Amino acid sequence: MVVLNKIYTKTGDAGETALGNGARVAKHSMRVVAYGTSDELNSVVGLARLHATGDLDAQLAHIQNDLFDLGADLCVPDMEKDADRDYPPLRMVAEQVTRLEREIDAMNKRLEPLRSFILPGGSALSAHLHHCRTVARRAERLTVELATMEAVNTEAVKYLNRLSDWFFVAARIANDDGRADTLWVPGANR
């Protein structure tokens, strides 16, 4: 259980922060950038939820919880030492990816196939979900970059990859099941 009695500690005043294993690293380290971006994504999802109702709101709530799991996963390096720890760190698991796939498939059944790219926007919820999609893609790129330097849980990368797809399909659902999508017209303004 996390207990936060004091919010500021002053331990980061010199530009370092503690990872989940206690190691101190620069605040600009790739690992911190990756999990910081997943935290940013969680905030953007919170904005989208201001416009969501019903199933989409419930699914976004699950995603927000997953994003905290993702941050917990990314903030503890040295995965090979997980079995030796007194308290094994929280890691993303395949079921979280599978749940997103099931939800994508269910939403996609309601949609007509695309014949063009979509311009982000439409309803307020759709615009926010497109914003979530682009931040998720950035979080994925940064996590993949981290994985070129250090061990990263492959389920974390898969989750982020699937999540951006989820946001894309959900944005279409939020645009009257795609009927209110604005399609890209190549070269329209030449």
From TrEMBL:
Ranges of residues in domain Cobalamin adenosyltransferase-like: 7-173
The molecular function terms of the Gene Ontology recorded here are: corrinoid adenosyltransferase activity
What is the organism lineage in this UniProt record? Bacteria, Pseudomonadati, Pseudomonadota, Alphaproteobacteria, Rhodobacterales
- Its EC number is 2.5.1.17
Q: Does the keyword Nucleotide-binding apply?
A: yes
Any idea what this protein is called?
Corrinoid adenosyltransferase
Under which pathway is this protein filed? Answer: Cofactor biosynthesis; adenosylcobalamin biosynthesis; adenosylcobalamin from cob(II)yrinate a,c-diamide: step 2/7
Please provide the record's keywords in A-Z order. Answer: ATP-binding, Cobalamin biosynthesis, Nucleotide-binding, Transferase
Give one Pfam family.
Cob_adeno_trans
Recorded family membership: Belongs to the Cob(I)alamin adenosyltransferase family.
Reactions listed under catalytic activity = 2 cob(II)yrinate a,c diamide + reduced [electron-transfer flavoprotein] + 2 ATP = 2 adenosylcob(III)yrinate a,c-diamide + 2 triphosphate + oxidized [electron-transfer flavoprotein] + 3 H(+); 2 cob(II)alamin + reduced [electron-transfer flavoprotein] + 2 ATP = 2 adenosylcob(III)alamin + 2 triphosphate + oxidized [electron-transfer flavoprotein] + 3 H(+)
